[in-house]
């Protein structure tokens, strides 16, 4: 059984930072592409960032590029999202996603439909 568990969400002031983590189990983690998505109330799930199997290739949504960093530690079966210079519009539930087809990452895998496995999400709230 594949399990993705996000952690690290919380309440932060605008301009602050948070680091999300997603621990994976039940899959050969190093052969999976990973991604972060987010969903605000009343809005569709939105792509944030994706990373290939090795961590050597990353791709970001324009809205977060330069502020967020996605990384992974294959020895710990964990993917991270370092979020800096947070804005109120970053407020959402953040989800991690995994799919073996996303092995090489890239813009093709910036759509929720490309991912088979999802975590339960972690709330991030940025106050102004």
Shape: globular
Order of helices and strands: EEEEEEEEEEE
Biggest β-sheet description? 7 strands, mixed
Question: What's the multimeric state?
Answer: single chain
Poorly predicted parts: none
Which structural class matches the secondary elements?
mainly beta
- The helix fraction, in percent, is under 10%
CA distance, first residue to last residue: 40 Å
Give the radius of gyration: 13 Å
Beta-strand percent range:
over 45%
Mean pLDDT: 96
Describe the structure.
- The protein is mainly beta and 128 residues long.
- 0% of the residues lie in helices and 48% in strands.
- The protein is built from no helices and eleven strands.
- The strands form two sheets. Strands 2, 4, 5, 6, 9, 10 and 11 form a seven-stranded mixed sheet that branches. The protein has a four-stranded antiparallel sheet with strand order 1-3-8-7, with no helix packed on it.
- The protein is globular and about 40 Å long.
- It starts with a strand and ends with a strand.
- The mean pLDDT is 96.
Overview in brief:
Helices cover 0% and strands 48% of the residues. The chain is mainly β and 128 residues long.
Primary descriptors:
128 residues; mainly beta; four-stranded antiparallel sheet; globular
């Amino acid at each position: 059984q594949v399990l993705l568990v996000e952690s690290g969400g919380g309440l932060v002031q605008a301009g602050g930072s948070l680091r999300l983590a997603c621990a994976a189990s039940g899959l050969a983690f190093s052969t999976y592409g990973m991604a972060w998505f987010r969903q605000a109330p009343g809005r569709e799930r939105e792509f944030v960032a994706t990373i290939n199997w090795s961590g050597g290739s990353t791709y970001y949504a324009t809205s977060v590029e330069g502020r967020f960093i996605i990384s992974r530690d294959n020895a710990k079966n964990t993917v991270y999202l370092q979020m800096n210079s947070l804005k109120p519009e970053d407020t959402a539930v953040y989800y991690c996603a995994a799919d073996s087809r996303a092995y090489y990452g890239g813009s093709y895998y910036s759509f929720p439909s490309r991912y088979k496995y999802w975590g339960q999400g972690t709330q991030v709230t940025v106050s102004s």
